[in-house]
Amino acid sequence: MNPLPENISSHAQDLTRALFDFFASREKKEFHSILRDLLHKLVSMQVERGRGFLNPQEIGEITENPLELKAVGTVDDFCPLVITEQGRLYFRKSYEYELGIARFFTSKVETIDSLNLDRAERFFQEHLKGTVDDYQALAIAQAMIKKWLILSGGPGTGKTRTLVVLLILLLEIEPDFHVAMVAPTGKAAYRLQQSVADTIDGLSLSEELTARLSVLTQTSTLHRLLGFVRGSVDFRRNANNPLPHDLVVVDEASMVDLPLMAKLLEALKPTARLILSGDADQLSPVQGGGVFNALAKGGELNKFESNDVRILQRFSSVAVESSSPNPLLGHIVSLQQSHRQGADQAGVNISEFCRMIKDGQGEDAKSFALADNLGIEMISSTKDPRVEKLIVEGFSELGNAEVPEQALSGLRKFRILCPHNLGKYGVDLWNQKAGYLVKSFSNQFLPLVIQMNDYGVDLFNGDDGVVCGDKAFFSSTNEMREIPKARLPKYDESFALSIHRSQGSEYDKVMIILPPPESKLLNRELLYVAASRAKSGIILVGDPESIGSAIQQGAEKQCGVVELI
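User: That's the sequence. What structure does it adopt?
Assistant: Structure tokens below.
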């Protein structure tokens, strides 16, 4: 086998070589170079960019007839590489995952499957209508009449409030409903639990209802819900041993990768309802797939068939009729009204900045960042002395913490976010810089982020905590967890995080490191995710032109599920 290009990671090179060695023995030598190039491109696409297929143009750059290879077949053949009707090339397992997901949603496209709608409407109008806006009410009504819902909304649009009010309604009309609320990582599950508790506190409910909701809304990770099996990629819960829940709610669903989404859907019992909640403008998962984003952008938002509209208008005035034949019609609700930091000008400015990024308004976003708006600070050079001063201030609570609980609280105050790991604008360098600066503090609590899943200690890639001496501490949905340092899976310091790793988190302030505009390392989705992590302050460090150049670059499509539905 000829040397592989150097612009592919060592992991992708090793995987490509192993696959080539396995397949090449079955191919004619004249096709070896074609096989090698197809495998190289498909592996690097999946490993480096999270996309599980090659499109026809990418295939055509290598061969006009991939089916002449014995390793490649149609969807009905038993070949390790699959060409679909759309002309895409997949590894068979990736194709089967996408096909299984598509079949799930196709099978769930049904006539109205209402719960006790009249009773629900009466209770909603009498007790809940004033607690939600029209779009939140639309989502609640949709979840009452359909088996599945894609609930999309940006920061502050009230996804958690929508879910909590829906659960209150379910408790009234279906008190024995078995509900699971989950998130892809421990960090995201912890945030969901906090957000649910804050929402319940803000609704002025009776003690009895609060107690019932508190039991109903205990959160966990998807892995724990499905039942991880040590040493296996499969779970205890599957089609032959389905979950007992009547409703499964997945928060931060944009972070769920393709294999995990496929296994979740397979594990639902036939009568179960499903809500996937997230922000479709955020990043697809690091491991690839992007199922939620593809679904949320694959159909018309807030539009329904005429029969559904008549029912939904009993709850909300914003339901719109559509005659589109799209099978996703009536299942995608996008929350449109922002409620974040309503009385806080910094929060309002952050929301506006995020909106400009999302809408592709690069010049407006750059001007907004340069205009000294409260909550947004632009520092045009990484060498500006203000940068070090702000890092020391940001980590002061963490640095001066005397007990783990204070350190974990301090960890949520401030974080440095980088578009990638290496180089002048990467995580490694900024971790070193911040680590050096905080050595002046009095304690030994250091932030860490887990790098790989470890089911034995229930820690997952992206979970973060603090370490002190021979012990590590993590926030959890119930109480702080203490784990011996020796039992931790691979981890890194986390004064700075990649933007991808920050997804599912929220901080009071973030410092976003901007690479040069010509570097192409930062795109619209990365910048949006980084900015939307902040509640009260964003510090942008780098060339202001990088804001506009990033916003001009949209992320590519990573999932073909919608085309298979």
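Residues 353 and 368 are 7 Å apart (CA to CA).
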